[in-house]
Each structure stands twice: as structure tokens, then as C-alpha cells.
Design goal:
Layout (H helix, E strand, L loop, with lengths): L2 H11 L3 E6 L5 H14 L7 E3 L8 H15 L3 E6 L5 H13 L4 E5 L20 H12 L4 E6 L8 H17 L3 E6 L3 H13 L6 E5 L5 H11 L5 H7 L6 H21 L6 E5 L5 H9 L6 H4 L18 E2 L6 H7 L33 H8 L5 H12 L21 H10 L2 E6 L21 E7 L1 H12 L4 E6 L5 E3 L7 E6 L7 E6 L1 H20 L6 H12 L1 E7 L10 H20 L9
Parallel strand pairs: 1-2, 1-8, 2-3, 3-4, 4-5, 5-6, 6-7, 7-8, 9-15
Antiparallel strand pairs: 10-11, 11-16, 12-13, 12-16, 14-15
Helix pairs in contact: 10-11, 15-16, 17-20, 18-19
């Protein structure tokens, strides 16, 4: 979606919005850490993020990769920087082609800084000389497909009048050439910024202006960044920070309050600005503190437009339905369905059953290394120890399992104790959804969209325990189930091969949304992955390890089961058959112990 449309919608709704900027790191580990951070910071509710193009164009491939990941996996609208530095036309065209393929609709067009090691900027052969040349090239080749942003410099307000007039004229020419909004450079003097905005408007420039806000992280970092940007530092701000320059925590605390006051004034002035663009410097704490100080709370429809993470690539933007089985493994689902021509939508349609990609080549692997697995899960030598691991995960005492790279979703907290009890009994739950009746969309735990559904459980279970469970399940007409073993033998009590919607949403002016389903074909495809993850867990241990034998035996013999309780008015009913089966198992074990022969042959 174009950023100008997002800004337009925010203005119409008279609400404040915000966005984040990140830059490509230099190392592979730094890149992974940044992606994890972007995913975490998505929960802070940015309308979009933008990714810089490093001075000299040295990280162009990383920029494109970050844009792709943000659009497809993290599911957040992205603006890509594009500079003229070291960029002949063919490289620009490649960057634009990739941006479009990734679903990116927003470009920040810049001349750029001189390449590293050079003091003066110069165009490369076959490249562009000015930012406006890049804008014209983009509009010539892509029409209005891209929103094009340009940079604005509030510091120019301090230039002599004739120089200021020239800078504003050049800015206007860029807007007239096709640019649609303006990102400003960082600043700390609000009076200078407000005066500059008024000068821009007086010149007839009506494009939205987005102020660049730089959280103050450390004193040295603050001094360095303001020097590089040649930004004026108000005396009052320097006087407040300098006495604490060796105390990063105090500097961040003072800086947060000062910058927050600056933001409040910008938003309260009658200059038509309702958005803030945070230069995060790839750091989380400073931006989070600023948002908290400003009491800017993310909207559910921004953070969670659907119960699952939506991909924003061109061929997936309209995807509205997914099987629930991959709820904790979004990347895997996207990989295994990346070659589909269509995705389930509307009333499920006929596209719900394309062939899922085979596991080979789709990156189905555990995130944890051998060392990390040992630290997380130890070396279990009994089923009771495995049960305990799953119980700890459900209670929030364990950050990950082989089937889930992250802690349980917030909605799981309402059933965490019930899930833990099931795991203690031997039902190893790997996916769940609580029953919720008429929850509002803005609910902080269950809400999604611009408001949910049936109870769902998925688990591994040993055959003897399943034999005790199924009679109780089959007595309840509200329960449907699928049972499958490693070999793919499927058993079910459903009367149709069609999907069962387990999440519903009702919104004003829209048809009922049913974004999450359970169906046989998808379950059978997921089965291979579920067993493979368990096998990989076992193989992390030494070949002669009791832990390895235990886990591999479990994966060889256990059955994978999913159960839907089709009456959300009874939120705890789904657990009753499990508790009954568990009680029977305990009774049988007690009877065996009671009748076991003693050494002298007597019973006790």
C-alpha cells in the first residue's frame, strides 16, 4: 500500500501515526538480529518501515533483502531508499524491479552521499546526477506505481534568504516531477522546524511532510549524529544532557522527555502534521520509551489485521485464509506455498488444495543449535521429562519448543494451565486456540482486524492413551477430529473433506471473515513437517544418547491429532475428554501397581 494513502487515511480519521527507519547491518549475525528486532518492534504499531541504502550503495543487496523480508515474512509495508551514488541506470532498474516483485510500493529517492573515501560527490557513468533525475526515471518507467518520497532539510531555514529560496525551489521541482511526500532530516530545534514547514507551504508545496525524529540513545551518539547532519542543538537541550554525558541511562531518560515534548508541540501546532518518523538506529529501547512517553498505543488493525501474519507480496496481498497448523511456523508455510498461483480466499474457493511443496529444499529446520537445544530442553530420558518440557512451555517457563520458535501467543494465557495439565497427562500439545465468544477487535489478547471462534487443540499422543481418549471424543457431537500417524494413515469423524472455519470475524460493512481453517489436505501436508521437526530434535543428541532414542521412538510411534470443539459457548468443554482419559489412565496404572506381585508372590 502506498504511504501517501496511509497518511491520507490517518488525516481523515484525525489520528496520530508513526513509522520506523532501519539500516542494513554489516554482518550476517547483525542482519538476523535486526530482523528479529524489526519483528518485535512491529508490535509497537508502525504504519510502515523504511530501509536505508548505505552511502556509496555498498549494501544494495542487503537493502533489497530486508525489503523482501519485511514485505513477505514480517508483513509490514516498507519504503526502500534508493540513491544515485555508484548506481548506473541498469542497477537502479534492477533495484526497482526487485522492489516491485517484493510488493514494495514506496521509494525514497535521494542523490546520496559521496562514496566512502571520497569528499566530493560525482555521478557514475550511465548514472544520475541529481535526485530529480532519479525521480523522473522512476515515473517514466513505472508511472504512478511507486509513491516517491524526497528528503527535506529543516536546517535550511537558517540559510540566507536567497539560498533558502533556492533550496525550496529545488524541493518544489522534485514534487512537481512526481514525488508525493517528504521525509525530513533529524532536528532538535522545533522552532526552526515549524518555520521551515511554513516556508515550504508558502512556496505552494502541499505534499505531506513527515518529521524525522531521532531518539537520544547516548550522549556520544547524539553528538556524533548531530555533527554529521550539521543539526543545530538548542542550548537548553545541551545544558540538560552534558552534566550526565557519562550516564547513558540518565541521558536516555532526559532525552526521551525532551524529544517527546518536541513531538507533542509538532502535533499540536496548526501545521497539518499527524505523523512521526523515528530514526531508530536499529535500536529498540529509545524508540519504545518515546512511544510510551507519548502514550502512543498501537492499533490492533495495524499490528494484527488477521490472526496470522499477512504477507504483503503482490501475489499474497489478497490471501485471507490459512490452515491453522502453521500458526507457529509462518516462514515454513510461506516457503511451502510460494509457488502457488492462487491462495485460499473468499468462501475458501477451489484453490484451497494446491500441492504443498515437499519438505526437501523448503528450509524445514530447527532454529536451535545442538548447544542451544541442550540449554533449552536438557537431555530427557523419560516420557515424563518430555511431558514436563511441554508443560513448562505452556506455562510460559520455556521460551521455545521444536514446533514453536517463540513463546506461546498471548491468547494462550487463558488456557495455559489447562494445556499444561494435558501435557502432564501425556498429550503433547503443539498448537491451540482458545474458544472465544464475541470478543471485540481491539481486545489486547484476542483481538484482530478492523473483532473469534472455535476451540482447537493439536497434539502428539501415544497409541494407548489415544485409545482411551477417542471414545470420550466420539460421544460428543460437538467434536471433530483428525488422527494421523507418521506413515500418513488418516482417521477422522468428519463427514466432509471441506474446510472447517475455526476463526470468525464480523466487521461493519464487510462480509464475515473466516481467516483460519482446519482441513484434511493441509493437515496431511503439515504432518510431514511436524514429524520431521521431532526427528531433527532427536538427532541433535549423540547417536548413542538415551535422549535421542527416546525422542525418535516417540516420533516413530506417536500419533498426531487435531481436535475442534464446535461450540464456542462452552470454552472449557474441549478439555473434558482429555481429563476423563487421563483419569482412566491413572486408574489403570494404579491397578497395575496394586496387583503387581511382591518378591514372595503375594499381592499388595
Amino acid at each position: 500500500m502506498k504511504i501517501s494513502k496511509k497518511i491520507e487515511q490517518a488525516v481523515k480519521e484525525d489520528r496520530v501515526w508513526w513509522s520506523f527507519e532501519y539500516f542494513p547491518p554489516r554482518t550476517a549475525q547483525g542482519l538476523q538480529n535486526l530482523l528479529d528486532r524489526i519483528e518485535r518492534m512491529r508490535a509497537l504499531g508502525p504504519e510502515f518501515v523504511d530501509i536505508t541504502w548505505n552511502a556509496g550503495g555498498r549494501t544494495s543487496d542487503l537493502t533489497s533483502e530486508l525489503v523482501r523480508t519485511c514485505q513477505s515474512l514480517i508483513g509490514i509495508e516498507t519504503c526502500m531508499h534508493l540513491t544515485c551514488t555508484n548506481m548506473p541506470a541498469e542497477k537502479v532498474d534492477l533495484a526497482l524491479k526487485e522492489a516491485k516483485e517484493h510488493g514494495c510500493r514506496n521509494i525514497l529517492a535521494l542523490r546520496g552521499d559521496p562514496p566512502m573515501g571520497k569528499d566530493e560527490w560525482e555521478a557514475v557513468e550511465g548514472g544520475f546526477i541529481h535526485g530529480i533525475d532519479l525521480i523522473r526515471h522512476i515515473t517514466k518507467n513505472y508511472g504512478d506505481y511507486f509513491d516517491i518520497a524526497v528528503a527535506g532539510f529543516p536546517q535550511q531555514q537558517l540559510l540566507p534568504p536567497d539560498e533558502l529560496a533556492q533550496e525550496i525551489q529545488w524541493l518544489k521541482e522534485k514534487i512537481d516531477a512526481g514525488a508525493t511526500f517528504i521525509f525530513t532530516q533529524m532536528f532538535y530545534d522545533v522552532d526552526v522546524f515549524i518555520a521551515w514547514v511554513k516556508t515550504v507551504r508558502a512556496a505552494g508545496i502541499t505534499a505531506p511532510i513527515v518529521p524525522g525524529i531521532a531518539p537520544i540513545q547516548t550522549f556520544n551518539g547524539f553528538i556524533k549524529s548531530t555533527a554529521l547532519a550539521r543539526t543545530t542543538i538548542p542550548k537548553a537541550l545541551m545544558d540538560a544532557l552534558e552534566p550526565h554525558k557519562n550516564n547513558d541511562e540518565k541521558v536516555r531518560e532526559i532525552g526521551t522527555k525532551v524529544v517527546a515534548d518536541m513531538c507533542r508541540r509538532i502535533l499540536s501546532e496548526d501545521i497539518g502534521i499527524r505523523g512521526l518518523h523515528f530514526y531508530t538506529m536499529n535500536l529498540e529501547k529509545g524508540t519504545r520509551m518515546l512511544l510510551e512517553e507519548l502514550n502512543l498505543v498501537p492499533r490492533v488493525e495495524v499490528v494484527k489485521p488477521l490472526p496470522w501474519r499477512q504477507s504483503l507480496t503482490p501475489n499474497r496481498r489478497t490471501e485471507t485464509i490459512r490452515p491453522i497448523f502453521w500458526a507457529n511456523r509462518t516462514k515454513s508455510y510461506l516457503s511451502r506455498t510460494e509457488n502457488w498461483d492462487e491462495y485460499p480466499n473468499g468462501r475458501f474457493g477451489d484453490s484451497r488444495s494446491p500441492a504443498y511443496g515437499e519438505l526437501d529444499g523448503y528450509g524445514i529446520w530447527l532454529k536451535q543449535t545442538k548447544e542451544e537445544a541442550n540449554k533449552l530442553w536438557g537431555q530427557p530420558t523419560s516420557f515424563a521429562e518430555i511431558n514436563a518440557l511441554f508443560s513448562r512451555f505452556c506455562r510460559g517457563d520455556l521460551p521455545a519448543l521444536p514446533w514453536s520458535d517463540s513463546a506461546p501467543a498471548s491468547e494462550t494465557t487463558v488456557i495455559s494451565e489447562s494445556l499444561a495439565k494435558l501435557n502432564d497427562l501425556g498429550f503433547l500439545t503443539i498448537n491451540s486456540q482458545p474458544a472465544v465468544d464475541g470478543c471485540k477487535s481491539e481486545d489486547r489478547v484476542h483481538g484482530w482486524g478492523p473483532a473469534h471462534g472455535y476451540a482447537y487443540l493439536e497434539f502428539f499422543v501415544q497409541p494407548d492413551l489415544l485409545a482411551l481418549l477417542l471414545p470420550h471424543v466420539e460421544r460428543d457431537p460437538n467434536i471433530t477430529y483428525y488422527v494421523i500417524n507418521k506413515q500418513g494413515d488418516l482417521r477422522t469423524n468428519t463427514l466432509s473433506d471441506g474446510p472447517n472455519a475455526v476463526t470468525w470475524g464480523v466487521f461493519p460493512g464487510k462480509e464475515i471473515v473466516q481467516p483460519t481453517i482446519v482441513e484434511a489436505i493441509s493437515f496431511m501436508a503439515w504432518k510431514d513437517e511436524a514429524y520431521e521437526l521431532g526427528r531433527q530434535w532427536g538427532n541433535l543428541y549423540d547417536s548413542d544418547s538415551p535422549s535421542r532414542k527416546l525422542i525418535l521412538d516417540l516420533m516413530e510411534n506417536a500419533l498426531l491429532v487435531n481436535i475442534v470443539y464446535n461450540d464456542y459457548k462452552q470454552p472449557n468443554a474441549i478439555f473434558e475428554p482429555f481429563l476423563k482419559a487421563g483419569a482412566e489412565l491413572s486408574s489403570q496404572r494404579g491397578l497395575k501397581e496394586h496387583t503387581a506381585p511382591t518378591p514372595n508372590g503375594a499381592a499388595h
